[in-house]
Amino acid sequence: MADFNAKEYVAGLVEKARAAQAVAENFTQEDCDLMTAAVTYEMTKPENIKMFAEMLVEESGMGIAADKQAKIIGKVWGSYLQMKDKKTVGLVEENKETGMQAYAKPMGVVAGIMPVTNGEATPIVKSNMALKTRNAIILAPHPKCSKLNLFVVDKIRAVIDKLGYPMDLVQTCEPEAVKLSTSQELMKQCDFILATGGEALVETAYSSGTPAIGVGVGNCVSIVTGKTPMSQVAELITRSKKFDNATSCSTENNIIVFESCYDEFIKEMEAHGAYMVKGDEEKMKLQKAMWPNTPNDNVLNRAIVAQSAEKIAEIAGFDVPEGTCVLMAPEEGASIEHPFGGEKLSPVSGIQKAKDLDDAIAKLMACLDYQGKGHSCGIHTDDPADVEKLAMIAPVTKCVVNQPQCLVNSGGWTCGFPVSMTLGCGTWGGNSLSHNATFADLLNYTYVSREIPNWKPEKVEDFIDASVIAKVDA
């Protein structure tokens, strides 16, 4: 495609999407529910999820196929069950006390910007979100998963067509057209952007001039207090950290451990397959392998992203025991000079000591100030007061207690977070949302007002407390 014109190419996709979406404007709730149920059923057939997972690992060279299969089931089933019985067409809310009614409307054509790290589940979840809300969606994949993305979208389109609905409600870019210029044009020409990806991509989405939802940088920090069994803590953290080779932005990138339980923690982590680098030599080898230009910048080496701990150690040039699943590196701080305090997108964790909870929170804040503010944190404790103190202070939208962080942040079967592929990080992370984005975030609402009895008080003393008035007038 030497003479490729991104503007014209995207205009063609958008034209087809608008035609399909014009038909969807007249869908009933039953139409939306049928499509989303059918897509969920077809796309999570065992033979399909196996194929999707294996194709992504082969195409991207990242992650673990078995974990990707689990991810597809968890995210597609979970997000579908959240929307299954919800109304998204017509009158969706009525308050008899205020006389207000809310009617749900589609946004139009959505640009679904996607990462390679979750390229197996994201296109299915985002497509279902659009179908549930009578929107059309055009998906823009990462170059390293463009072939899988086309394969997945073709299957979704076949399901929609079989049911008698317009296939162009879900479209994607051909692999040859997966370029930065194409994504930028989609952001300009569509009505709304649902973006999951790196910091630069999300910044582009928010500056495109089109309304957008994006996720901030992940750099999850977990505190270990020693108040829960250390074997349990190590099992939870290693299970989270090794899942899909840490493709998720929600893995425990930094672990802050009370001095009182530090030695026991390291021992239990090692018993669960983790490896603490030996001395400054191995630490510097690992640091150089992960951030080749350190301390000039904090750009991760793409060759280590979502690779196994053993592969990363091999790249770094030191030996680890067979079966090692997580690498640990001691760190003191979080900055370009202390890069292990930042995000890693790999089964590598920075380990810091803390004297007590106040010290741990101070170190957590330093990590988040460096990278990841707004995203998430975790704590392992049996003391509700510890949780309350952390939750009151930490500038994050998700605080996870005694759970594996990466299996919880984006929703799961044993937590109350909404299942999502786009995790809002609030204004801390440069986002417009503080919650996990769901289908409800792809709806506009028309509010209807009717006259109700006048509720204006007779005088100010009817609604301002007398003690307040006395203080002001004293």
Please sum up the structure shown:
The chain has helices at residues 6-24, 29-43, 46-60, 65-83, 122-132, 146-162, 180-189, 199-206, 230-242, 262-271, 279-290, 309-316, 357-370, 384-393, 466-473, and strands at residues 90-95, 100-106, 109-113, 136-140, 170-172, 192-195, 212-213, 220-224, 252-258, 274-276, 326-330, 348-354, 377-380, 399-401, 443-448. The protein is of the alpha/beta class and 474 residues long.
Walk me through the topology.
Layout: H1 6-24, H2 29-43, H3 46-60, H4 65-83, E1 90-95, E2 100-106, E3 109-113, H5 122-132, E4 136-140, H6 146-162, E5 170-172, H7 180-189, E6 192-195, H8 199-206, E7 212-213, E8 220-224, H9 230-242, E9 252-258, H10 262-271, E10 274-276, H11 279-290, H12 309-316, E11 326-330, E12 348-354, H13 357-370, E13 377-380, H14 384-393, E14 399-401, E15 443-448, H15 466-473
Parallel strand pairs: 3-4, 3-6, 4-5, 6-7, 8-9, 8-13, 9-12, 10-11, 11-12, 13-14
Antiparallel strand pairs: 1-2, 2-15
Description:
The protein is of the alpha/beta class and 474 residues long. Helix content is 40%, strand content 15%. A 7-stranded parallel sheet has the order 10-11-12-9-8-13-14, with helices on both faces. A 5-stranded parallel sheet has the order 5-4-3-6-7, sandwiched between helices.
